[in-house]
Each structure stands twice: as structure tokens, then as C-alpha cells.
Fold this protein.
Amino acid sequence: MAGYREQFGPVVRFALPGRPVVLMADPAGIRTALHSGPDTVTKGCPAGARSVYDRLPLRLLGQGMLTSSGELHQRQQRLVAPGLGPHRMAEFAHVFAEEAAAVAAVWDRGGIRDVHHDLAALALAVISRTVFGSRIRPGEVEILDAALAAGNQWSVRPLLPGAGALDLLPLPRTRGWLRAHREIHEVLDLLIARGRRGSGPGSDLLDRILTARDPLTGVPVGPAQARDEAVTLLVAGHETTANALFWCLELLARHPAAQDRVRAEIRRVLGERISPTPADLPGLVHTRAALYEAFRLYPPVWLISRTLVRPCAVAGHRLPAGTVLLLSPWVTHRDPGLWLEPAAFRPERWIGAGRTLADRTASDAGRHERRYFPFAAGPRRCAGQFFAESECLLTLATLLRDRAVSPVDRRPATPVPAFTLRPHAGTRLRVSAVPSLPAGARAVGRPAVEIEGVQP
Ligand code: HEM
């Protein structure tokens, strides 16, 4: 996709059969796509018949909050969003820290680790405790991780010509996905059943999902809809976070000076404590900057689609109703017209006046305002952004306080652009202990004030 942007500019029309499809890499156009109301833009399509691009995630997620639109979506938003907000963080932080400490204990043995595998298990454990209120069991982690990896691949299949017909054939891949789909549902049903009986931090969110009623008819949502909500939160909250953490550690492994700065900061902020708390978050300036830079270079959600419900001028182009707008954080985050040294890992670009410029582009006026959108923006922005950022920061703080990661393979990990941006399977990093320096030797000052790398 970045190639199309390079060759044809920020607005690329694809000559495909069916509805018009446009890759929109222009920040003003991205703003229109993300911030316009439902009278202009939808995630489905006007007549309800979804485009192939909208159908990508439907295979895995059904009618959950990520894929629904209209009234159903508004009801889901009211149901789910409050359960993920900052006021729940004290409860959730405890889970983040405990699960990160479990990985840290394994890493303390040192050696070479499949870090993505470890982080996927961690993120799965976190989401099952915080959203389902129940602990996931070891065998279930393996089943879900393998099944979701298959689902991730499968979700891009509808883009292939003739995919509809291919799905009807009993090909080994099709059978594999159907089996994976069944397994996801079986594990989810177990999690839901256990969560119903439990009283963990996520039980009330699960309870709200399971007991929700249609506000107009008063009819309960039913098990199929409840499962769609559950699988959505599982996928939205686990794949994305695991990938974000992986890419951040992979980048820090290849930039040891940045990793040293992050570790020094974590040690300064935590002092003698080995477990971070939400109160530590504001002090983790370099850590947050490294995470934001990882979101920029390897956005876990690399493709977002919206559909115009009426003819509209987008970035100076008159587009007809029904046009599918493809927005790619991957493409825009690496646009040389919008970023200095776009391919370089430069966490400093996020630091100014000793603090992280938290999504600075959200409040900026002007042409760069939507050059950074790892969590989307506007009415359909990620409901779990605060949750995800807190989970990532507290996990990084736990893991990197007394441990270092370094590359094993000469070539950096390569991303697989499926539903989320996973690395190729089997990516390895070396984990080693970093003993604390004697107290007097820990001379770490405030973060330097540096200039953010935006071209004027
Ligand atoms: C680094 C981690 C994450 C990233 C990068 C991320 C990114 C995104 C993006 C880009 C969207 C919009 C997708 C679209 O419009 O097509 C989204 C939506 C959503 N995310 Fe996240 N997400 C992350 C973590 C989470 C977590 C941890 C949860 C829940 C626990 C979550 C729950 C949701 C939900 C429910 C939506 C749908 C919101 C709506 O349509 O109203 N996400 N996420």
C-alpha cells in the first residue's frame, strides 16, 4: 500500500469491480473519514449490504462492537465503553502487573524466547481476567492463540478474487479455519461460563454484556450476540496489545541506547519497587515515547475502512455515495511528506518540554492533524485506548526494569499484514538480566527537552 501512495499520491482510486475504492492517505481526507457523523460516513454500507472490505472482520467478529453500525453500535458503546475507562484502572492495573510479573519470572531464566508467543499469552490472560472475569487455563491459551492466528490470516481471504467460491470448497485451509472458528467459540463458552460464576475484575462487564436487552423491545440480546461481543473484545483487546508490545520490544532490542534510556527511567520512577502502579504512568515519558513510536512504525491495526453514505468532497476529490475509503496508519505513519526520517525509530520525536506529546496530532489544527491515528479517531475511535496504553506501559515497566532484550537474528522481524499486524511466526529475542546499579550510581536526570520531528 505504501507503494501506491509513493507512486500515485495521497488519494489513490482503485479500478476494481463493484463499488469505488479509494486509498486515502491525505490527513485532511483521513479527518473527514474518521470524524464525520453517520449522515456522511459509516462502517457498514448504506443499504446494509456490506462491501467485501467491510466483510473482512465480520468473519471473525460477527456483529460485535467493532463491526456493527447504527443503533446496535450505539447500544454496544453504552454497554462496553464504561467498563474499559480510567476509573477501572486501579483494578485492572493489578492484573496487568501480576500477569507481567509471571512473564518476568520466566524471562529471569534468560536465554532465547519466542517473545511474541509470551506476549500473546500475557495479553490473553489479561483480557480473560479483565473482560471475562475468569482465568484462562494453559491448554486454552494454546488453542486460542493458534485459532486466532488462523482467523487473522483468514480474515484477509475475501480480498482474493473468487474467494466466495473458494469458501464453498472443502479445501484444507477452509476446513482448518472452520475448525479454528469452532475452537474459538468453545473456549469462549468456557470462559463465559466460568466468568458468570466468578467475581473477578471483569465479571460485571461480562454480566452487562450477557444480560443486555434491546432498549426498544426489551428482548435479551441472546447468546449469539453476546458471543459476538465477547469475541470482539477478545480479538480487539488481545491481538492488538500483544503485537504492540512485541514491536516495541523488537525495536528497543535493535536500539540499545533507547532501551537503556527507558530502563533508566523505569528504575528512577519505580525506585526499589519491582511492580509499577498507575501512579507511575505520568513519569514514564521515555517509555511512552518508545511505545508511541512503535505504534507509528508498526500500527497493530494497519487498515481501517469507512464507507461514504452520500456524495462528498474528501481531500478535494468529489466522491460518490458508496465509496469505500481505505485508511492505512501504516502508509500515513511512514509518509515522508508528514514525518522527518519516517522509517527511523526516533522516540524523541514524541518528547517535548519533558513530557510525552500524547496524541499531539489530535488537537493540532492544520494539515498534519491526522497523520497519526493508531487508535483511529472520532466517533469510532478505539474504546480500549486507555486500557491498552496502560497495559503496555505497565508491562514494559515490569519486564524492562531488570531485564534487557537483544536481537538473535540479523534481520529485523517482518510484519504479516492480516487483520492485525503480527510478526512472522517464530520471532526470537534474547533475554538477559540487567543487575541494578548501586544506588549512588543511578544518576538519571529528567528527560531531555527535545524537538518533535514534524516538518513545518
Ligand atoms: C495497542 C492496542 C490497540 C490498538 C492499536 C487498537 C486500535 C483500534 C482501532 C484502530 C480501532 C478502530 C477500528 C476501526 O474503526 O475500524 C479500534 C476499535 C476498537 N477497539 Fe481497539 N485497539 C487496541 C486495544 C484495544 C483493547 C485493549 C480493547 C478492549 C479491551 C479494544 C477495544 C476496541 C473496541 C471495542 C473497538 C470498537 C470501537 C467502536 O467501533 O466504537 N482495543 N481499536
User: Anything to note?
Assistant: The two ends are 25 Å apart (CA to CA). The pocket of protoporphyrin IX containing FE is lined by residues 65-66, 77, 80, 84, 233, 236-237, 240-241, 244, 300-301, 304, 374-376, 380, 382-384, 387-388 (CB under 6 Å). Residues 50-317+383-441 form a domain with the Cytochrome p450 fold (CATH 1.10.630.10).
